[in-house]
Design goal:
The chain is of the alpha/beta class. It has three domains: 5-111, Gyrase A, domain 2 (2-Layer Sandwich), CATH 3.30.1360.120; 140-211 and 393-445, Four Helix Bundle (Hemerythrin (Met), subunit A) (Up-down Bundle), CATH 1.20.120.430; 223-384, P-loop containing nucleotide triphosphate hydrolases (Rossmann fold, 3-Layer(aba) Sandwich). The longest helix is centred in the middle third of the chain and has 25 residues, at 156-180. Helix 6 (156-180) packs antiparallel against helix 7 and helix 6 (156-180) runs antiparallel to helix 15 (424-442). A hairpin with a 6-residue loop joins strand 1 (5-8) and strand 2 (15-23). The two termini are 16 Å apart. It has helices at residues 27-34, 93-105, 115-122, 128-139, 143-153, 156-180, 191-209, 212-220, 234-242, 285-300, 316-324, 366-380, 382-390, 398-419, 424-442, 448-455, and strands spanning 5-8, 15-23, 35-37, 50-58, 63-73, 84-91, 109-110, 222-227, 260-266, 269-275, 303-309, 330-335, 356-358.
């Protein structure tokens, strides 16, 4: 934190603008070393949020590197809470790198991934859940995912966590006071009020946890695996959903030997479609590896699209795949219904609540995509996703979910202790534990190694 950091803040490549960002105690001083304003002003003389036009100059050779705009943002009213200088140059690969190298030679050090946002967190500009929302905004693959990330950046989740903490701190203060100062004439703990606070807090935790699965889908995408025997139409289905010839399709069984993954936007829900190798017995080593990978992906999937061929008799392999996916969310797609059928639906046995769609990938077009889209959303509970997104507070990360579960367990123990008539000091222990886990979400009690893991996901320059 005592060093000034620098990095390229725009994507690598050719573009209209390339930005080199500096942040730290010497950001303005280093900026003055390599930037010369057209009218001769020094950056250190500028007030915050002021922009100047000039040239980037190598101070050792007095050679001009590029022309640029220099923007000064004084701490604490900047993204990082420190003095920040942004040098907006032409967006060439070589020119931007040259400007960065000048900043590094002039006293800055190269920023680590996510270090600008990490400094914003450490300087109190953002809490940890808001900092994580920054990378979610960058990586959002749908407008609904972006909306949820922006809401979290604005503090939607943080406010609900703080409300929980405020209620529980109020209980802890009264409990601790009655324990530590029994001789004082303090009002006794209202037991009904204490129980009500615990019950309300548990309800709030349950409401937040109910959004966790939907929030994870919006942030990471619904992992949807297309399965079936070779040559049933799995790759054709992928191409139909993508509306492009992404996967190679032939009449030769076993054409797909490895997985193909693409993402589509399904009414705001990112769908991670994975086409797998056809599952069958084979002596081909490469195909065997593909089949093994397909079986692994089935276990990891959020949703299975299992494709069957109605024009050929069902085999033991068909029933084996159906059995392997019986405990997962799935949709059964009976393909090639335009051909003479070789079996009827009664041969499939008990499929539970899995929808069965009779389709023809050859003859059906956009109406098939709409039909399948509705079936997929019905399986993942799109209504819950959309209503949760509208509530402006979703739990989108596994880390948050685990912390909430731990807090929930602590409060449940506290409530059981209270209802069991045990001493208040035992209740206080569980309340403190719950508060500690809630603090992990906003970063009040987070460990250093957890911070490193979180910000390692960021790109350099953010």
């Amino acid at each position: 934190m005592d060093r000034t950091i620098a990095a390229v803040a725009t994507p690598l490549g050719e573009g209209g603008i390339g930005i080199v960002r500096l942040s730290g105690p010497e950001a303005v001083e280093i900026g003055d070393k390599i930037f010369r304003a057209q009218r001769g002003q020094k950056l250190q003389d500028l007030k915050t949020y002021r922009l100047r036009y000039g040239q980037i100059v190598d101070p050792t050779t007095d050679r001009q590197i590029d022309e640029a705009l220099a923007l000064v943002m004084r701490g604490p009213h900047s993204y990082t809470g420190e003095d920040v200088v942004e040098l907006q140059c032409h967006g060439g690969i070589i020119s931007v790198q040259a400007v960065l190298n000048l900043a590094l030679r002039s006293g800055a050090r190269l920023a680590e991934p996510g270090e600008f946002t990490k400094r914003a967190f450490l300087n109190g500009r953002l809490d940890l859940s808001q900092a994580e929302a920054v990378i979610d905004i960058i990586q959002a693959s749908t407008s609904l995912g972006l909306e949820v990330a922006v809401d979290q950046l604005e503090g939607s989740l943080s406010r609900r966590i703080r409300d929980l903490q405020t209620r529980l701190y109020g209980v802890v203060v009264k409990v601790e006071a009655s324990i530590d100062f029994p001789e004082e004439d303090l009002p006794e703990v209202d037991l009904l009020e204490l129980e009500e606070a615990l019950v309300i807090s548990l309800e709030e935790l349950a409401n937040l946890l109910a959004t966790a699965d939907d929030g994870k889908i919006l942030r990471e995408g619904l992992k949807t695996v297309i399965t079936g025997k070779p040559n049933v139409g799995k790759s054709s289905l992928l191409n139909k959903l993508l509306d492009e010839n992404r996967a190679l399709v032939t009449d030769i069984p076993g054409t797909t030997r490895d997985t193909i993954e693409e993402v589509i936007n399904l009414q705001g829900v990112p769908l991670r479609l994975i086409d797998t190798a056809g599952i069958r017995e084979s002596e081909d080593l490469v195909e065997q590896l593909g089949v093994a990978r397909s079986l692994d992906l089935i276990q990891e999937a959020d949703l299975i699209l299992h494709v069957l061929d109605s024009s050929v008799p069902l085999s033991s392999e068909d029933h084996e795949i159906l059995d392997k996916t019986k405990d997962q969310k799935r949709i059964i797609l009976v393909n090639k219904v335009d051909l003479e059928p070789s079996w009827d639906m009664s041969k499939l046995g008990d499929l539970g609540d899995a929808p069965v769609l009779e389709i023809s990938l050859v003859h059906q077009g956009h109406e098939l995509v709409e039909q399948l889209g509705e079936a997929i959303l019905s399986q993942v509970g799109s209504g819950a996703i959309l209503s949760s997104a509208g509530s402006k507070a979703l739990v989108t990360r596994t880390r948050h979910k685990h912390a909430l579960l731990e807090a929930q367990q602590g409060l449940e123990r506290a409530l059981d202790t209270f209802r069991g008539g045990l001493p208040l000091d035992l209740i206080a222990v569980d309340l403190y534990e719950a508060l500690e886990h809630l603090g992990e979400i906003t970063g009040e009690t987070v460990r250093e190694n957890v911070l490193d893991q979180i910000f390692a996901q960021f790109c350099i320059g953010k």
